[in-house]
Amino acid sequence: MQLPSALSFLIDEAIDVPNGDAFLTALTARLIADGVPLSGGALTQAAPHPVIERRTWLWRADTGRVIEALALARPADLEHTHVARNWLAGIGTGAVHEDFAGGPSDGAVLAWIGTRPFSASESELLRQVARFAAAPLALLAARSTLAALLTTYLGRRSAAQVLAGRLRREPGETIRAALLFADLRGFTELSESTEPQEVIAALDAWFDRIAGAVHAFGGEVLKFIGDGVLAIFPIGERDAPAACDAALRAVAAARVGMDHLHRTRAAQGAQPLSFGMALHLGEMLWGNIGTADRLDFTAIGPAVNLVSRLEGLCRPLGRTVLLSGTFAAETTQSLIPLGEHRLRGIAAPCAVFTLQ
């Protein structure tokens, strides 16, 4: 039986399409080959993500390009509910044709607009396309869910390793990077004197400021360690000075964020959150460590040890930010030398600097 090109694609090929952008691009090409006079098309899917509620891909014929619109995870986001319909209505002729791909609870919607109103046979083909698209879109959603869950709980680098099938204890990869270690001070006392809900809220606010600043400047949070954060700014696409400068900009942004948080907490009658941050440049080993059936991606090596020990000097030296001599050598920013200091468990003394 000879099927329309769009339905053949959905049966034979769509299962291997990697994302919504590629799916919509390929599907529109097949529909046009079937003679459907498209001006634009849209695919909306629920997004299993802590920040994003739905993702909508929008394609228009005059450019052949796909753009993406995101709906943030907030209640009653009615504006985004109609974003595809409203956008399509502005680029074509006739009524927007919409169908659920699967049931309404699946959250996938295909929408189309033509260069003229669709004929009855064209509308029927679009309805069949939505029916045949349900299975490959469900698989695409499942893959997206898995990737989002792993990235949320493991971080981008670790998630990519797990998705690639690294499920055994292995030596891992060596990463050269600017390392940032940040830690709250007095967290034990805070935990003992404050209601658990308030402690969690304080931790979340702290992590938001640190991790948000790291991600804004191209870094990656590798681990949350109690009330501490280990992040890296990898060297590869950018050189060591650029990675160090990005880390310094992230530190500056995090400090501004913490200043604002302290003012908010003071207005609520809460104590400020004291913290320290340390920066170092070096290599670390990032890989699977654990038992045969319970693994964790962990960073180990002298650079990780040094940056965590360096942060421990913040309180005795009365500084919020400390930099190792290795890190300081790669930046042109003016720094204040604090001399050489011995760090617990580190054989050689470490030259220590702080910000002006």
Which stretches are low in confidence, meaning pLDDT under 50 for 5 or more residues running?
A: 75-80
User: Span from first to last CA?
Assistant: 76 Å
Number of helices, where a helix is a run of at least 4 consecutive DSSP H or I residues: 12
The assigned structural class equals: alpha+beta
Q: Main sheet?
A: 8 strands, mixed
Given the C-alpha coordinates, what overall shape results? Answer: elongated
Mean pLDDT: 89
Instruction: Tell me the fraction of residues in β-strands, as a range.
Output: 25-35%
Gyration radius over CA: 26 Å
Q: How much helicity do the residues have?
A: 40-55%
Name the helix and strand elements from N-terminus to C-terminus, one letter apiece: HHEEEHHEEHHEHHEEHEEHHEHEE
The count of DSSP E runs of length 2 or more, i.e. the number of strands, is: 13
